[in-house]
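A favour, since you know our C-alpha cells better than I do. Could you add the entry underneath, on a fresh line?
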Amino acid sequence: MHGTVPWFKDFQTRRTRPVITMAAVDRFYLLYREISRSCNFYIEALAIVGAWYTVRKCISLVFDTYSMLRLHLIPKLGGEIDLVKQYGKWAVVTGSTNGIGKAYAEELAKRHVNVILISRNKEKLEAVSRSISETYKVETDFIVADFSKGREPYTAIKKALKDREIGILVNNVGMFYPYPDYFTNVSEDVLWDMININIASANMMTHIVLPGMVEKKKGAIVNVSSASCCQPTPMLTIYGASKNM
C-alpha cells in the first residue's frame, strides 16, 4: 500500500508530457514575439528606405521615358525640324576632319545646313569639305586653325566668320593624352595644349558667334564633352577636368 501502483505511475508520466511540450511551445512563441517586437523599429526603417528607393526609381524612370520620347519620338511626329529656319544658314564645327566632329558636319549638311569646318590640317579639311559638298549638295568652307596656339588663331577665325549667318556652333575639338601618366609627369607643354584646346577653344568660339545669335534671337551651341568628366580618371586627370564643358 505504501508503494506506487505501476499503472498509476505510468498515468502520471503520460499526463505531465503534454504539459512540458506546451510550456516549450509557449516559451518559443513568447521569445519570437519579443524578438519581433524589438525588431519592429528596424523593419519599419527598412520599409521606409525601400519605399523611398522605389519612388526615386519610378520618378527617374518617368523622366528617362519622357526624355526618350521627347528626343526620338515627338520630333518625328511633327516631321523633320528645319534647322536652317530654326537656327540659321551656317554651322561651324571645330575638330571636324574625323570622328565625332566629322559626323556632326555630315549630319548638319544632310539637314541642308551649310558647314564651315575648322581644324589644323589643311589637306584633311579640303578633302572633307569637298566630300560633304558633293554628297549633300550644300555650301562648305574651312578655316585652318591650331587651337593649341593660345590666342593666335581667333583673330583669323573671327574675320572669316564676320559676315556669315552662324546658326549652329559645335565645339568638338579636343586633345587626349599621348598615353596615361601621373599628373606630375605630364609636361607643361602638354598641359597648356590641353587647356587651350579643351577649354579655351569652346569659350573663345562661343564668344565669337554668340553676339550674332543674340542679335537674331536664334541659334544653338553644342559643347561635346566626355564621360571622363563625370567620374574619377586616374592618370588622365587633366583630360577629365578639361572636358567638362
Observations:
- The mean pLDDT is 84.
